Amino acid sequence: MAKRLRWFIDSMFGYWVLLLLISLGTAAGIYEVWLKGRM
Amino acid sequence: MEHGTRGRAVVKFLFWTAVAASLVFMMARAHVSGQLAAWYYHTAAIEGYAVNADSFLDATADAPATLAVGAFERIEGRQAVPVRKGDRLPINANGVIGKDILDKGARATLAGDTIVVKVPWKISESKGFKYKDTFKHKGIETYPWGAVWNVAMTLGIGLALGFMAEGFTDLLGIKLEKIRHFEGH
Amino acid sequence: MFDFVVAGVVAPIFLLVFVGFTVGTVGGFIGVGGGYMVTPALIVFGFPGYMASGIDMTHIAGKGLVSTIRHRQLGNIDWTMALSMVAGTMLGVELGVRLLVYFKKLGISGVVLLLTSVVVMFSLFLYTQIETRRAHRKAEQMTRDGQKIAREIQTSNLPSYFQRIPFFPIVRCRTARVVVSMWVIVGVGVITGFLAGFLGVGGGFIRVPALVYLVGASTHIAVGTDLVEIVFSGGYGALRHSMEGHVDMMAVLFMILGAMFGAQFGSIATSYVRGPAIRYILSYSLILATCGAVLRLAYVLTGQSVEILSLLAVMLTLGEMIFLCLFIISLVLFAIRHRHGKSVPPWVPSLVV
Fold it and tell me: How far apart are CA B92 and CA B90, in angstroms?
């Protein structure tokens, strides 16, 4: 499990995926809090 | 850090902070006084009667809405103001019932100094990617020198903030050296 | 929440400052205005399309100036190159805008625009990504061989072709250490300006690769020099948009207040990394923007009926800004760790200084 998680940092592509997931999650949060009613 | 350089950094930082603060204050004052908004006004795209369509959303053929026609500066509820193409719209107007529609008489008719409306008017609002052009936003005019003011303000604030930041890093003694692009192989 | 009277919209101040900060960071780092991220974001916040465009162009001018001042301090601007390009850029923008108006009259501008942006951005992404990976591998190999690596490693052969073009006058760009025909620089300005005017963007994401791969400038210098262009094209765009009534200055102000921190961070971050790192971030920005444009195109082509596409496009637009910002912050943190001898992922050392 730990090895799998290390892939997200040790590999450039893995790090890319990790940050993208965090970013999309944050974007979803922003949408939920501020934008849902407006669209 | 040398006393002289430090002194210069303090002066630089304080000067540009003052410039930035004044420009931001000027902009805030322009907003609060209504000057910014006054430079932007809607004009009528067609000849007809300016209305606030929200006031007769429940109009039907059986229970039509009656709008009082007059030269109001501000539309409150069921009122209509005669406008020609290019005229400034009154405050709260969000559309114009065209003269040709009144002549046809199917949706609305002119009766003396009132307009009788038989259907609600659909206004498409801009909403995210479903943006549609709406007659609310057509025909915006601006005061031409307002454009110059906008650009001058933006560049002025950008310049002041940029040098303020430079002064700030100088003040903290952070030395940012020129990047050596070609060092190495 | 703030009542933006001119735009006719009520929107949260936090979101505008946040967008200003993230796009300021990205813009200061890769030398773009960020319009292709900001305009869709503002539309999502409720601003009408033309207002979003106008606010974006205006704030880019101010934000570009903040970044330019910092990049000047870092020695990332080649003024000869920048000033040679300006006239070409302005001409290109004007031509691009006129073509756009022509397509608008034909009634097909929306789809044409999206298609053009997808093709342009995807092609740029492919070339930049492939070349940067080659440069990254070369840098890693040189490190393994014990050689000292410069700030810039670039493996494209294109600059040598363009630098051989003999048309008079030949300019010496001292900072960039490039000797090239002025017409190459002007030509780059016209073509990138044309695309920018047509697509309604600042043009940085086209101009930075063009300066690197056609003119042969180093990435850092391409970034700094491009930001100077952005001040000019942004300022001109701001003037035109303001004249048409497309600008709400209070929205611009909030965005610049966010950008003033972001632009500083992004610009200073360039001093922690090598050229390939900046090109990587640029290529990621391009592919994410391409995906966003594809989603919007799909949404338009399906008659604006498949709601999930619209939602995905929103998430991608906002997510893209946050992603790029996080990546840049990571690179700086890794660079600092590496300087202090702490452990970093294996792909990092050849990218940072």
Answer: 6
Q: Which residues of B134-171 are buried (b: 16+ CB within 10 A; e: fewer)?
A: ebbbebbebbeebbebbbebbbbbbbbbbbbbbbbbbb
Query: Which residue in C177, C220, C249 is closest to B27 by CB distance?
Result: C249
CA closest to A18 among chain C residues: C323
Residue C87 corresponds to which tokens in the numbers above? 């006239």
pLDDT of C305 > 80? The answer is no
Distance CA C351, CA C353 (A): 7
Q: Dihedrals φ, ψ of B140, to 5°?
A: -75, 135
Q: pLDDT band at residue B141, thresholds of 50, 70 and 90?
A: low
Query: Is pLDDT at B41 greater than 90 in this prediction?
Result: no
Greatest Cα pair distance, chain B, in angstroms, is 89
Residue in C15, C311, C315 closest to A34 by CB: C15
Residues of chain B contacting A27 with CB distance shorter than 8 Å: none
Alpha helices in C145-248 (DSSP H): 158-163, 182-199, 204-210, 219-243
* Chain B CA closest to residue C260: B161
Measured between beta carbons, which residues in chain B are less than 8 angstroms from residue A31?
none
Backbone region of residue C96 per phi and psi (left: phi > 0; alpha: psi in -120 to 50; beta: other values): alpha
Q: Which residue has the tokens 């493996």?
A: C155
Q: A38 and B127 in contact by Cβ < 8 A?
A: yes
Q: What are phi and psi of C99, to 5 degrees?
A: -65, -40
In whole angstroms, what separates CA C99 from the centre of its chain?
Answer: 22
C-alpha–C-alpha distance, residues B178 and C271, integer Å: 9
Cα–Cα distances in Å, from C306 out to A25, A28, A39, C286, C310?
Answer: 22, 18, 14, 25, 7
- Residue (of C291, C198, C219, C206) closest to C32 by Cα position: C206
Is the CB of residue C260 less than 8 Å from the CB of residue B176? Answer: no
With 0-12 / 13-18 / 19 or more C-beta atoms within 10 angstroms meaning exposed / middle / buried, residue A27 is: buried
C-alpha–C-alpha distance, residues C114 and B31, integer Å: 35
**pLDDT digit string (tens) for C47-100?**
877 788 888 889 999 999 999 999 999 999 999 999 999 989 889 888 888 887
Check: CB of residue C30 under 8 Å from CB of residue C263.
Answer: no
What is the amino acid identity at position C130? I
CB contact under 8 A, A16 and C12: no
Smallest CA–CA separation between C200 and chain A, in Å?
Answer: 24
Q: If you count them, how many residues does chain C have?
A: 353
